[in-house]
Amino acid sequence: MTSYVVALEKDVRDYSIVRSMMGDKPLVIWRGASGAINVWLDRCPHRFVRLSAGRNMGGYLEGVYHGWQFEESGKVMLVPAMQGRPAHDISATVYSTAVAGGFVWASEEECSPSGSAGEPCYPVHIAAPVDQVRLHVDSSVDHLTPWGVDGSMVYPTGDPAQRRAELSAIRRRLEES
Ligand code: FES
């Protein structure tokens, strides 16, 4: 089971929308009126328009094209073209989500923000593309994912303090080169 950091918690504000990626999957991330952070596939189940082009109305996310309203569970709570009726059999694709260490984590399975040993695993951000970072990090040991346009997130394994120190040295080298 792999969980990924998909956003910084502080960046997910009320009434706003954050776009991110989980592997090759585009994500829309939004905080609902309940205070919970929702991480969904960034694709409306109606006509596949990006949900991130819509609006976070607090209690629901509104699709930009036809105004479908999605409650926090992901289900469609209102379709304007159906006299405002719900369509609860239709849902956004919702990912398992957790908040830990100031990060928003997500997974296609049950989200578990931890390393392979079950210890908390705090990833290291490096402002360099994954292809470049892979040359310096053993990706059979540490897990790598893209972060933003040109960044990478490294999920270390092994002794957390030691590995973070090693990765910080790699980060400095790459970011200063
Ligand atoms: S495409 Fe999303 S509401 Fe129609």
UniProtKB/TrEMBL annotation:
Residues 4-106 form the Rieske domain. The keyword Glycoprotein does not apply. Keywords: 2Fe-2S, Iron, Iron-sulfur, Metal-binding, Oxidoreductase. InterPro entries: Cholesterol_7-desaturase, Rieske_2Fe-2S, Rieske_2Fe-2S_sf. This is Rieske 2Fe-2S domain-containing protein. It comes from Gluconobacter potus. The lineage of its organism: Bacteria, Pseudomonadati, Pseudomonadota, Alphaproteobacteria, Acetobacterales.
